[in-house]
Amino acid sequence: MQAVASEFRQQGIAVVEPRPATDIEIGRIHAPEHIMLIRETAGRAVALDPDTFTSPKTFEAAQMAAGAALAAKRGKRSKSSLKGASRQMARSMSESELRKMAKTKRKGKPTRKRKKG
Fold first, then answer.
1. Measured between alpha carbons, how far is 68 from 89 in angstroms, rounded to an integer?
2. 3, 111, 24: which is closest to 67 by C-alpha?
3. How many alpha carbons fall within 13 Å on the CB side of residue 81?
4. Which residues contact 63 (CB under 8 A, 6 or more apart)?
5. What gap in Å lies between CA 83 and CA 85, rounded to an integer?
6. Which of 103, 108, 79 is nearest to 24 (CA)?
7. Domain map (residue ranges) of the chain
8. Helix, strand, or coil here: 29?
């Protein structure tokens, strides 16, 4: 990641370092149990189920990705600097839609989407 940032800087592109999202921010989307489950995998690779694995840095990477998406939505970071799901959410959802999604009650809902089949 640092090599990519260095290359961007050499090309005159401003690089904004993301900050990690807080537990409160992440908790607007994920159940506390899910946050704890992923946090407990920090520093090691874990198979959560037969087709879902974490790496030693999964929790840290997730915090940084969420922090970057929040910064972009709040105008503190360029939306064009986002990648993947963060970029799609920033493009397709308004601030009020994101707030509404974040306020969704978690009681009785799964902590993560289950695959069909």
1. 12
2. 24
3. 22
4. 20, 21, 26
5. 7
6. 103
7. 20-102
8. coil
Give the other-Cβ count within 10 Å of 67's Cβ: 21
Could you give the C-alpha distances from 3 to 15, 21, 30, in angstroms and in order?
Answer: 12, 23, 31
Residue that the structure tokens 């537990």 belong to: 23
For Cα atoms 57, 59, 60, give the angle at the middle one, nearest 5 degrees: 65
Please, what is the Cα angle at 103 between 98 and 106, to 5 degrees? 120
15-32 pLDDT, tens digit each: 777 788 888 888 888 888
Element (H, E) at 52: strand 52-54
- 92: tokens are 């397709």
Give the integer Cα–Cα distance in Å for 31 and 18.
Answer: 23
Amino acid in the structure at residue 73: K
Tell me the pLDDT tens digit for each residue of 73-105.
777 666 677 766 667 767 776 777 666 655 555
Do 26 and 70 touch, CB atoms closer than 8 A? Answer: no
